[in-house]
Structure formats: C-alpha cells, structure tokens
Amino acid sequence: MSMDRVAWGSLHTITRAKSGSKPFSKETLKRVLGFAKPHRGKLIAFVLLSVVLAFLAVATPVLAGQVVNAIVAKSAAEEVVRLALLIAAVAVAEAGVGLLSRWFSATIGEGVILDLRTKVFDHVQKMPIAFFTRTRTGALVSRLNNDVIGAQSAFAGTLSGVVSNVVSLILTLVVMLGTSWQVTLLAMILLPVFLIPARRMGSRLADLRREAAEHNATMGTQMTERFSAPGATLVKLFGRPDEESHEFAVRAGRVRDIGVRTAMLQFTFVTALTLVSALALALVYGLGGWFAITGQLAAGDVVVLALLLTRLYAPLTALSNARVEIMSALVSFERVFEILDLKPLIQEKPDAVAIPAGPVSVEFDDVRFSYPAADKVSLASLEDVATLDTRGGEEVLHGISFRVEPGQTVALVGSSGAGKSTIAQLLSRLYDVDSGAVRLGVGTHETDVRDATFESLRATLGMVTQDGHLFHESIASNLRLARPDATTEQMWEAIRQARLEPMIRSLPDGLDTVVGERGYRLSGGERQRLTIARLLIGQPRVVILDEATAALDSTNEAAVQAALGAALEGRTAVVIAHRLSTIRAADLILVVEDGRIVERGTHLDLLAASGRYAELYRTQFAEAAAAVEDAGA
Fold first, then answer.
1. What are 572's strand-pairing partners?
2. DSSP letter assigned to residue 372
3. Residue 190 CA: distances (Å) to CA of 93, 128, 312, 313
4. The domain defined by 361-376+394-624 carries CATH number 3.40.720.10
5. What is the domain partition of the chain in residue ranges?
6. Could you say which of 170, 240, 273, 579 would form a disulfide bridge with 7 (CB–CB 3.0 to 4.6 Å)?
7. Which residues make Cβ contacts (< 8 Å) with residue 32, sequence separation at least 6?
8. Strand partners of residue 462
9. How far is the C-alpha of 578 from the C-alpha of 572, rounded, in Å?
10. Which contacts qualify for 298-302: CB closer than 8 Å, 24 or more apart?
11. 18: DSSP letter
12. How far is CA 394 from CA 288, 337, 376, in A?
C-alpha cells in the first residue's frame, strides 16, 4: 500500500463523521445490539476474517524481507523461489479472504438496512394522519435513506475497521520493534506531524461537505415541489420562472464554489501527508541503510521496515478517528430511533373484534374531539422548526349525536370549518374520539370502532375524498388498492358502474395505462370517477363521501353523481356536500356549525323551519340563478 493511498484513505475516514455528535448513550448501544442479534453469526465470522486479513497483510512485508536477505546471502535459488511462491500464496489467500470478508460485510450491512428500513416504514404507516399533515416528506424520506445508511456503516465499516486496525497495528509494531526498535521510534516521532493536519483539515472538509449537502437538499426540495404538476402550474400562473431559475442558480453556484474549495483542500491535504510519509520513508531508508552497512541490520530488514511503515500509519490514523466514526453512526441510529419512539395514537387493541357480516348502521353518541398537539404526533426535526407548536387540545366537536340506519343516507352540511370532515375522519378512525363513541351496528350487535380490527374496519368502510388522490401507477394497480385479488372482470364491472368504460376502452393500454402523479393525466371528473370505481370494487357496506363533487363543473358533476348513485345503492352512506342540490333526497340532513349539530331533518322539513339550512339553500339558489342569468346575457 503506497503512502498516497494511505493519505486518501485517511481523508475519507476523517471527513465522513458528522458534527454535533452526542455523548455516548448506553441505551442507544443496547438498541443497536438488538439489531445486530439476527446477524451475530455473520458478524463473528466477519470479525475473524478481519483478523486473518490483518495477519496476511503483515506477512507479505516479512516474506519480502526474507527474499532480499536470501539474495544478499546468495542462498540457493530454490530458497528464493520457495519464498516467492509463499508470497504468491499469501496474496491469493489475502484476495480470497478479502472477497469473503467483503461478502459478509455487504450481507450484514444490507441486512441491517433492510431491517431498519422495513421497521421504520411499517412504523410510519401506523402513524395518524396528524403526523403526515405536519411532517416534511423530504425529511421523513431522509431518515429512511441517509440515516439508515449511516447507521449501517457502524456494522459494515467501523466494526471491521476497528478490529482489523487494532490487530494490524499490534502485529506491525511487534514486528517493527523486533526488527529495529531505533528505526521504529524514529518513524513514530513523525506521527504527530501526520495526524495533526489530518484532524484539522479533515474537520474543514467535513464542514464543507455538510454545507454542500444542505444546499443540495434545498435544491432537491425546490425541484421536487416545482417539478410536480401542481407546483409547475403555480409557477407558470404567477409568472415566476426567472425568479425560480435565479434562486436555483444561486444555490447551484454555491455548491460549485464549495466543490472547488473542497478539491483544492483535498489535494493540499493529500500532498502534505504524502510529503510527510516520504520524509518518514527517507528516514527509515537512511537510518536503516546505515545500520545495514555497519552490520547492525540485515538488508532485508530495511525492506521489511519500509513496507511495514504504511501499515503502521494507516491503522493509527484510522483508530485516532474511530471514536468520531462510532459517534457518527450512533447519531444516525438515534435519528432513526426518534421515529420508532413516536407512539401511534391510533392502535388496534389486542382483543379487537371483527365487525359481523350484514347491513351496517352508524351511530355517533355524544362525541367530543380535539386535534392532538404537535408534541403528541410529530418531531421538531421533521417539521424543520426549532420548537414544536404547543397549541392544540381545543375541542372542535361538542357532543355530536346522530344515528343512520342500514341503507339510509345522512348528509352533513354547514359552513367551511364547521367540523363535517372531522366527523367523517372519526367514523373511518383516522382519529379517535376524546369522549363518547362511534359505533357500527349489525342487527343487535354494535361495535365501537376503537374495538374493531383494522382489517374488518377497512373492509366495512369506503371513502371518496374531494381531491380523488391516485398513485403514479396503472389504473389496475390503483383499483386493486381496495381489493388486491380483484379480477379483470370485476375491475371492468366497477368501471362500468363508475361511467368510465368508454374512456378507458379508448386508451391504448387500457387498464395498464399509468395515470401519472396524483392522477394528473386524467381530467378532474375522470379522476374522481376512478376513485369511485376503486370504492365500488372494495364493496364496502358503509360509504363516506367527503365533498366528492365540490371541485367539478356541472357536466362532470352530473357524471359523477350518476356514478355515486351506483356507489350508494343499498349501502349506508354519510355524505358531506357543499352543493345542497346534491343531497335533497337524503334520509336525514344534519346542519353542523361550530362543531355542533344545530338542525336536523329532511330537506323539506328544514326548508319549512326557515333556519340555517334554509338560509344556505336560498343563498346557493340565488347564486345559481345569477349564474344562469349571466350565462344567458
């Protein structure tokens, strides 16, 4: 190994650590070891192979010195050939053990990544909706990528590095001191000259790399937001392409400047360390050569000392930074554990029961609810704030009570922010009530949604929201989200009921057509009807419609309403509607204001009462009449 390679290896090691490392945490270490348990057999084999590699690495210089001594002593040619073959055998063994060691390293490292990622992913899926409404998606994804990989390095890199470097250092020092303690001490004198600039310059390089990473992350966030369909539309509508380009160019220019400084610092660092190494090598050859000429040292021993010099400096440099590497890995683990330590507010009870088969009734019994504060569902680091918002806990629903019999439709109307969508979210158990109960009844058997299994609750309830969200996948994949085992014929039947068959038949790829991010390759009406088809294919017994037609024009609304007719047929329904004309036939209409039900009854009853519902209806009727007059004019 050349001293130039040692310098580059040292540079990589000392710039890989993160700043702000926390003190050593025994609790964190225990949890880390918990992740290591499934891989302990491979870890033991990996450590043993690292020790073997260290022995083989020291063996080659010793054999090379014996070759030189045999040549100087004019030994038999067979002896030189034997030593050469032995060096070749050591090289082959080193290569084989190295490959095997690398396989164990990769297997352990990737295994830890798999365990951590799946555990975090599964845990995040259990988090309440409040968690996702507050968290930056990019920060959450970073925990699954950057921090998990940083944690993995503790097993794959740091562990083997510490073990092999300790063994290599001890063996090297023993051989060098046994060969010539004078030359060894002289080589050690230059060690501080080697380490001090490495630590100082390495710290500067690490800071530059962190700054570059922050700028790259900001550029990544800007690109993610601006390159999405809604973001690109917003930029174009407000005519800001030039400003956006300037902001991006400033950040990219800063990364360029950092790249230039980093390259120059790296070259200066490596040049300085290579020079120091060359001086140390010159001292070894000078003093060792003088000892050899005066007969105090064999010529081959000088070669041994020179070859072992690199194997002395490299492990010493690595071990001097081992603590920083370990702390860096522990910080990554702690950032991952932060996510895992967030307790999901919505959890399935150990003794949860399945909702029985049959028509389902819905009952809200004196329900009161307040949204959880940020410290209950989020982390400051995930929201990119210094301190979490402590507000929360204010009651938004006050004693909500109503009942919907099987097959009936109840409509919720009222002002924006009155609490209608919150009621729908409590029914689907996206949140849990603070007091009271939400029950689903089958015959005489009633089940609190908090006592039901998640699987039976999802099979019983189906929901269509206003935005009609779709994944960037095929039409078939989006439909099978509600029913993974759905056949092609079942999908086409749901599509027919959703009034989408002619449109999808006309597509070149049919059901395999990719709908684009959030379904933006489809029109608003098509996207909404596809979400209705997804609901139909799941065959829920209770349907929740949250402003399903609010964002549509009259033509698309008519098509969606026709599809909703099929969706509601024979099912219990809770409908939140902005347009009152769409819910006149509901069995029960509830007027919600400020988290309370202020009126209830049928459409005609509420009109006759001349209350809030009549006021809302007259206002919408007047607006519709004015729109017709404007269109006629």
1. 542
2. P
3. 33, 59, 12, 10
4. no
5. 3-340, 361-376+394-624
6. 273
7. 151, 154, 330, 333
8. 543
9. 20
10. 298/65, 298/69, 298/72, 299/68, 299/69, 299/72, 300/64, 300/65, 300/66, 300/67, 300/68, 300/69, 300/70, 300/72, 301/65, 301/69, 301/179, 301/180, 302/65
11. P
12. 81, 30, 14
For 62, the token pair is 């010793």
Question: What's the count of helices (H) and strands (E) in the chain, helices before strands?
Answer: 25, 10
Which of 601 and 377 is assigned the larger pLDDT? 601
3 state SS of 566: helix
- State the Cα–Cα distance between residues 616 and 416, nearest whole angstrom: 12
How many residues appear in the chain? 633
Output 12 or 112, whichever has higher pLDDT: 112
Task: Determine whether 2 is exposed, middle or buried from the number of CB atoms within 10 Å of its CB (0-12, 13-18, 19+).
Answer: exposed
Q: What is the CA radius of gyration of the chain?
A: 35
Question: Do 21 and 327 contact (CB within 8 A), yes or no?
Answer: yes
- Of 371, 360, 422, the C-alpha closest to 393 is 371
Please indicate whether the domains covering 3-340 and 361-376+394-624 agree at the CATH topology level.
no
Q: What whole-number distance in Å separates Cα of residue 509 and Cα of residue 494?
A: 18
Neighbouring residues of 513: CB distance < 8 A, sequence distance ≥ 6: 474, 475, 504, 507, 521
Of the candidates 373, 402, 376, 369, the one whose C-alpha atom is nearest the C-alpha of residue 389 is 373
Pairs from 620-627 (Cβ < 8 Å, separation ≥ 24) = 620/579, 620/580, 620/581, 624/581
**Which tokens go with 69?**
């001594």
Q: What is the per-residue burial (b if ≥16 Cβ within 10 Å, else e) of 498-521?
A: bbbeeebeeeeeebeeebeebbbb
Q: Which residues have CB under 8 Å from 402's CB, separation 6+?
A: 363, 364, 410, 588, 590, 597, 600
User: Tokens 């073990």 identify what position?
Assistant: 163
337 neighbors 28 (Cβ within 8 angstroms): yes
pLDDT in tens, 219-236: 776 777 777 666 776 777
Q: Read out DSSP for 495-524?
A: HHHTT-HHHHHTSTTGGG-B--GGGTTS-H
In this prediction, residue 623 carries a pLDDT of 54
How does pLDDT run across 331-361, given as a tens digit for each residue?
777 778 888 888 888 888 999 999 998 899 9
Model confidence, pTM: 0.68
Distance CA 270, CA 507 (A): 60
Q: Are 128 and 430 in contact (CB under 8 A)?
A: yes
**Which residue type is seen at 471?**
F
The CATH fold of domain 3-340: ABC transporter transmembrane region fold (1.20.1560)
**Burial degree of 137 (CB within 10 A; 0-12, 13-18, 19+):** exposed
Task: Give first-to-last CA distance, the chain, whole Å.
Answer: 88
